[in-house]
Amino acid sequence: GVSFFQTNTPDEAMAEATRRQAVRSRLLQEARENFDSIAGAAETPYSRNLREMQVKLNAYLRQDPSFYSRAIVFDRAKMDAAMAIGFGEIDAVKRVLAREGLRLGEDASDNLDAIRIAGKAVDLVDSRFGLRMYTQNATSLSDVGQTDPAYVIVPEPDHAQGTAVKGLTPQENTDFTNRHETWHAKDSRYSLKGLPPETVGYSSDYHAKEMSEDPELRQAFVTRFRKEALADTGALGDMIRDGGDFSTLEKVSTWRTTAPDDSIHFSPAVLSGLKAEIEAVGLDRFRGFTDREAKAFYYNVVEKYGISEKSIEAAAHYDMAAEKDRAAIEDAAAKDPEIRKGLAFRAAISVKKPEEGPNILSEAEAPLKAQLDAWKAEKILQDRAFALDGRVTPASLIRAYGALETELHDKMKSDAGNSRLYDLQMSKLQTTFIEGVQGTDYVEVNRQRGVKIEEVEPALSQFMTPVKIKDAETASPAPSKKNPTLKL
User: Where are the alpha helices (DSSP H) in 122-169?
Assistant: First the structure.
């Protein structure tokens, strides 16, 4: 029908715009005040998987303590809800963690922890499908909080996966990545404590000159390498213990060879050793290991096949040596496996990696983009909110978001042929939800569905229209001079 703003005077239109903004502000305020009670409605099956992952990990830590007494697996769905109703990223992180019993205050240290988590949990990317997408970078953050610190895991997203291992299905990729992060929490041997922070920060990549001179830098580098190698080994070993075969291990090894994040993630030699050691003990016996036996097995693999400080010192000296002096190091490598591993490592990471092609839409993907463009996420979200609660409010939009994401998640798993479409629809819905809830005209979207929101929401009684206004559905448009352009 004709808009109210086309049938009334500029003063009336301005008053109505102000009233509608006040309605929206009150509904959003109410949602923020009740966040703890409504955030659970945003949960999806993946949220429940993450909850199970957290419960199992904490049970493991109680049985086999590591450097950390408890872990929290961060649920992005609840952060989506918090951001959608107006919490900034930092406050959203704090609200989600508070639901797990970890309260971050306003001091610099706690704020820095929240910033670190937000930096990994919220990553905006522009998709070649024309979407502004929210994804996240899986990571682990230790010692979050001051009074009762926790180990916080930002898991792999269940859609819009930015670091997918080539050859793995989305589910396999999620399983591997999340197991990798849990093994960082389980590690009770490799610690960076006592090393200068600036040294640790510089140690993610191989630096021959500095490592030939600085033993602390070598220690930091090797410790971080072993932490990552253990996480890969534990994740893939456990997937095999749970019934998987070697194919996932081989795909991850190839991926680490061709697309390593940095030198400390270069684990192919260790993964090759893992396969050899499993074959040596026998698959059935390996699958029968207790958790403690498996952990000891993984540590042995990492240290037998991975680099040591002696290895990296030899590699660095080799790189810095004159050509005539390298023969002596090569001779030493023939007799010493630690030196030999160092030279093999430097050679492997020196291989030029293939460059990625341009991230542009292919001709074959054009029909998929057309389907995505035709999928009206905003209307679908509002229609579901209305169907669930008989009104569209921030709270009902949270419920609708959880329900729709759940349906798309289930379709992505059950209909493999169209999984890419469902993945993209989840991203489109997520962006629409996060960026749209605060801009919705709740008076208008409910009026379009036959509901006066002020009459059905008790908190809005003060915003009832004091006088009868012209019916926007039946009134003739006012002259153009009375039709100001007002955007809500």
Answer: none
Separation between Cα atoms, residue 407 and residue 388, nearest integer Å: 15
- Quick one: tokens of 341? 């591993």
> pLDDT tens-digit profile of 11-57?
888 888 999 999 999 999 999 999 999 999 999 999 999 999 999 99
Alpha-carbon span 376 to 228, nearest angstrom? 42
DSSP 358: P
Distance CA 182, CA 176 (A): 10
Q: Please give the share of the chain, as a percent, with pLDDT higher than 70.
A: 92
Strand 150-154 to 71-73 pairing = parallel
Distance CA 15, CA 25 (A): 15
Confirm if 439 and 487 have CB atoms less than 8 A apart: no
Tokens of 439: 């801009």
Cα separation, 321 vs 334, in Å, equals 18
Instruction: Report the C-alpha gap between 176 and 232 in whole angstroms.
Output: 8
**Token match 């808009």: residue?**
3
Furthest C-alpha separation in the chain? 96
Query: Tokens 């929290």 sit at which residue?
Result: 72
Residue 162 token pair: 């930015």
pLDDT of 488 strictly over 80: no
Show the CA angle centred on residue 58, arms to residues 52 and 61, nearest 5°.
145
Classify residue 40 by its DSSP letter: G
Q: What is the pLDDT of residues 411-467, one digit of tens each?
A: 988 998 999 999 999 999 999 999 999 999 999 999 999 999 999 998 898 887 644
Nearest residue to 258 via CA among 179, 356, 345, 138:
356
Phi, psi at residue 473, to the nearest 5°?
Answer: -80, -25
In tens, the pLDDT along 142-186 reads 999 988 899 999 999 988 887 788 899 888 999 999 999 999 999
pLDDT of residue 481: 35
Q: What 3-state class would DSSP assign to 88?
A: coil
Q: How confident is the model at residue 3 (pLDDT cuts 50, 70, 90)?
A: low
Beta-bridge partners for 401: none
Residue with tokens 């206004």: 469
Instruction: Reduce the DSSP state of residue 72 to 3 states and report it.
Output: strand
Classified as helix, coil or strand, 122 is coil
